[in-house]
Amino acid sequence: MDTEAPHTERGHSSPREGEERSRSVFSGAGRRPLTLRRAGLLGVLLTVFLLLLGNFVVQPFLIPSRSMEPTLQVGDRLLVNKLAYRFGDQPRRGDVVVFDGTGSFVRERPGGDPIGTALHGVGSALGLAEPSDTDFVKRVVGVGGDDVVCCDAGGRVEVNGVPLEEPYLHPGDAPSTVPFRIVVPLGTLWVMGDHRAQSRDSRDHLGEPGGGMVPVEKVIGRADWIGWPASRWGAVGGGRG
User: Fold this and answer.
1) Which of 48, 121, 167, 223 has the fewest CB neighbours in a 10 Å radius?
2) What is the residue-averaged pLDDT of the chain?
3) Does the annotation count 67 as an active-site position?
4) CATH class of domain segment(s) 60-235
5) Residue 58 CB: number of other CB atoms within 10 A?
């Protein structure tokens, strides 16, 4: 009979053990919502931080087309330096720039769904969605006051009578199959894609209002780095002159 008593005592928790177990269960249940709230708050704060960073300092930009190959490839995510021209510096020949083409490359359009536009804008600012159809990335070929001509006897683009060396051109592309001669108005840029055969650029808007010129004030920033994919990390190839 004495052997059953210890067995019975082991089969039941003491009141103190039961209280501690209950306390641990309730405290664990209370921590889970708190942890989720903290994670949600951190997510919101991180998103706000990235949006502020993208609006004022560095903005991701997803490359949607082949117009800048081989320098930039479809799917590359640029890091656009929005401070590059904010303190008096101006775009220079050879810079790869991202700009708002409204009024130069595309006409003004009536506003669409404001909620959809806002959501797309957030995704674009975070580099998760394709850029707005009014945003473009091209290389600066001529700045205000430049006399840009295509083409010289060797088939090269000339700027102020000097033939351009363009090592960034897509292999097999001519500098241009469209002849032109323009003087770039002050405060504007003449821009072209590196893949000239696949790029709709200033040449395609010669006969339109603005003549294909991009106002400097419409430049969003300079494309300085490729941030993704990891295999293409590095500075954007330039041809500054």
Assistant:
1) 167
2) 80
3) yes
4) mainly beta
5) 19
- How far apart CA 137 and CA 64 sit, in angstroms, is 10
Which band of pLDDT confidence, cut at 50, 70 and 90, is reported for residue 200? very high
Query: Catalytic residue at 27?
Result: no
Which residue out of 124, 138, 202, 218 is catalytically annotated?
138
Backbone region of residue 234 per phi and psi (left: phi > 0; alpha: psi in -120 to 50; beta: other values): left
- Over residues 30-49, the pLDDT tens digits come to 455 668 777 767 666 665 55
Burial class of residue 125, CB neighbours in 10 A (0-12, 13-18, 19+): buried
Q: Note if the pTM is more than 0.90.
A: no
Q: Is the dihedral of CA 169, 223, 147, 104 positive or negative?
A: positive
Both tokens of residue 163? 């033939």
Strands (E), 33-161: 58-62, 77-81, 96-100, 135-143, 147-150, 157-159
What is the pLDDT at residue 37? 76
Given a cut of 50, is residue 120 above it in pLDDT? no
In this structure, are residues 126 and 60 in contact, taking their beta carbons and an 8 Å threshold?
Answer: yes
**Residues in contact with 200: Cβ distance below 8 Å, sequence separation at least 6, in sequence order:** 67, 105, 193
Residue 129 near residue 123 (C-beta atoms within 8 A): yes
Domain ranges of the chain: 4-52, 60-235
Angle at 146 between CA 140 and CA 148, to 5 degrees: 75
Q: Tell me which of 67, 104, 124, 202 is the catalytic residue.
A: 67
Cis peptide before 150 (omega within 30 of 0): no
